[in-house]
Design brief:
Radius of gyration: 21 Å
CATH superfamily of the largest domain: Tetracycline Repressor, domain 2
Shape: elongated
Number of helices: 11
CATH topology of the largest domain: Tetracycline Repressor, domain 2
CATH architecture of the largest domain: Orthogonal Bundle
Order of helices and strands: HHHHHHHHHHH
Number of domains: 2
Strand content: under 5%
Distance between the termini: 82 Å
Structural class: mainly alpha
Length: 198
Amino acid sequence: MKTRGRPKKNQKALSSTEIIISALLFIETEGNEGLSMRALANELDITPMSIYHHVGTRIDLLNAMVKKVYEHISSHNIQLKPKEVIQTLLSNYCEKSLSHPRLSLCLISSTELSVPELDILTETIQNSLISIGLTSEQSNAYLDILIDYTHGFVMAAAQQYQSASEEIINKRLNISTYRNAIQLILGAINVNYITEEE
């Protein structure tokens, strides 16, 4: 016969997906520093060992969280032109990052996280730059410019999202502002001019 009432910690079962989704919500309220296995376990009313069993270490959990947010990030319409592919992919990345500002800050600042989805994103952007007509050296230079600007924008916007009012956010660092800036950067790529200069 089953008893009623709140389940004990050692009786409550959650899937790894449920833990990851809960962790995504938790990090946005408590920050990266507040995301410990014990704190998350208390929030979910389970034991820390349950989390270790389902998702592994704290780094494994963060990797799973990043994978959940950025999965399929490199998907795009194959009929798009190279510059349109770059703008689409970077905008997707920025939009997802701004939806999870504290996780994105953790991702940018960490050297421990391994994110295959973002490696594929970077490779796709570089291939698109080469498709425009740039050399490998030139594509590396523009890739660095695009990534540095994107990370700088995300970091500034993520900090703003944590402290500013919605009215200020809408007027300043939002996804529309980012798309316009990337369009300007891509518009400045002139293969003929670069070739003549060399």
